[in-house]
Amino acid sequence: MKNNTWKKYMGITAITAVLLVGSVSAYFTDQDEKTNTFTVGKVTIDLEEPEWDKKPDENGNDIPDEAENMTPNQTIEKDPQVKNTGTNDAFVYMTVEVPCKKIVTVNNDGTRNPEVVRELYTYQTDSSWKLLGSVDVTDETGEKTAVKHLYAYAGAQGTCTVVKPQETTKNLFREVTFVNAMEGQGLENGMYKIGIKAFGIQTTDLNGGTNNAVEIWKIISNQRELAESFS
């Protein structure tokens, strides 16, 4: 009797074990996966001078014929502007480097002004651009050779204006005038270039969301390790 009872228990135990194993393996399982995709935008700008670039250049030296052999007080069309060619909104800046010389200038009535270091070109900026400061440019001897001016595409209060993709700023200026200099001061047959550079930066996530033109220029200056300190 004992042996038969033991065998019955063994049979029950075996069945129970099979049921337990079957119960474990019968759980339904599933798996799913999601990948969040992000794309990186791009800030790119083009410095354009549409009217300047249309001017004839018969000798192919990249200087419009009208800009060669300029005379005192002559005005020529020059129209720098910036186009946002990227995929993100941008804040935009320009620097303008104007050559200078120590010269005597003449007023419209022919009277002379004292000999001082003067910028050789003048221009009238559009109100959509704000002057943030200027800095002297010197050569290796320490002589002042130019003045560089920094402009932000911003309102009068210094708040940067957003330039959206494919939008273009207003012209910084539309013409430049050569200084009314006395002859015989070494300006003749010289080449005096106006250097213009444009800078662009994203409009969001800048130092806590600032849109202040001065603060944003500091970010650009630090990132590009620019040496000038405009004031």
Explained architecture:
The protein has one domain. The protein has helices at residues 2-25, 50-54, 213-224; strands spanning 45-48, 75-77, 81-84, 90-103, 116-119, 121-122, 129-138, 144-153, 175-178, 195-202. Strands 4, 5, 7, 8 and 10 form a five-stranded antiparallel β-sheet that branches. A three-stranded antiparallel β-sheet has the order 2-9-6, with no helix packed on it. β7 and β8 form a beta hairpin. Helices cover 18% and strands 27% of the residues. It is of the alpha+beta class and 231 residues long. It has three helices and ten strands.
The number of helical elements comes to 3
Distance between the termini: 110 Å
Quick one: biggest sheet? 5 strands, antiparallel
Please tell me what the overall shape is: elongated
Count of strand segments: 10
Strand-pairing-aware structural class: alpha+beta
User: How many individual domains?
Assistant: 1
Helical amount = 10-25%
Strand residue content: 25-35%
Instruction: Report the C-alpha radius of gyration, rounded.
Output: 36 Å
pLDDT averaged residue by residue: 87
Low-confidence stretches: 1-25
Order of helices and strands: HEHEEEEEEEEEH
Please describe the structure with a list of short key phrases separated by commas or semicolons:
disordered N terminus, three-stranded antiparallel beta sheet, five-stranded antiparallel beta sheet, alpha+beta, single chain, 231 residues
Write the layout of secondary structure elements.
Layout: H1 2-25, E1 45-48, H2 50-54, E2 75-77, E3 81-84, E4 90-103, E5 116-119, E6 121-122, E7 129-138, E8 144-153, E9 175-178, E10 195-202, H3 213-224
Antiparallel strand pairs: 1-3, 2-9, 4-5, 4-8, 4-10, 6-9, 7-8
Keywords: Signal
Pfam families: Peptidase_M73
Protein name: SipW-cognate class signal peptide
